[in-house]
Amino acid sequence: MKNSESFISVKEAIDFVLNAAESFGTESIEFNKSLGRVLKETVKADREMPPFDRVSMDGIAINFEAFQTGLRSYPIEAIQAAGSEQLSLEHKEHCLEAMTGAMLPQGTDTIIPYELINIENGIAHVQVEEIKHFQNIHKKGLDRKKDAVLISKDTIITAAEIGVLATVGKTTIEVAKLPKIAIVSTGDELVDVSEIPAAYQIRKSNVHTLAAALRGFELNPDLFHITDDKNKLREKIKSLLENYDVLMFSGAVSKGKFDYLPEILQELAVQKLFHKVKQRPGKPFWFGKKEQTTIFAFPGNPVSTFVSCLKYFIPWLLKSLELGPEKKDFAVLAEDFYFKPELTYFLQVKIKNEAGVLSAFPIAGNGSGDLANLTQNDAFMELPSDRTDFKKGEAFPIIKYR
Question: Are the C-beta atoms of 31 and 166 separated by less than 8 Å?
Answer without folding.
Answer: yes
